[in-house]
Amino acid sequence: MTDKPLPVWQVRSAYLPLLFLTLVLPWGAFALIMMTRAMMFVEPLFYFYLVMAVGVFLVAVRLIREKQSPGLFRAATLLAAVSAIPAIAFVGWMMAHHG
Question: Hey, which end of the chain has fewer CB within 10 Å, N or C?
Fold first, then answer.
């Protein structure tokens, strides 16, 4: 009788790094914006961050209710991936315009 490890989506602590990254990665884009003084991107980034924070809140509420599922884990992973988009897009924009 071997003990198989639980699937990653059933481990509650697997969600924490994803939710943390979702909240931290937009701040990386904000730091890049502040370093380059491209202030026109600050307001859209603020609204983007609010949307990401609401997503984290919804995932966290679902986790508190003990309702882990593969779909919820995919949602948390997608939130973390989407939260990296502003930093990547801003670096691409800087390279294209200031090469």
Answer: N
Whether 38 and 71 have beta carbons less than 8 Å apart is answered as no
Kindly report the average pLDDT of the chain as a whole number: 89
For 66, left (φ over 0), alpha (ψ -120 to 50), or beta? Answer: left
Whole-angstrom distance, CA of residue 63 vs CA of residue 3: 24
Query: What is the Cα–Cα distance from 30 to 25, expressed in whole angstroms?
Result: 9
Helix (H, G, I), strand (E, B) or coil at 45: helix
Angle in degrees, 0-180, between the axes of helices 70-83 and 85-98, rounded to the nearest 10: 30
pTM recorded for the entire structure: 0.80
Structure tokens at 12: 């509650």
CB 79 within 8 A of CB 52: yes
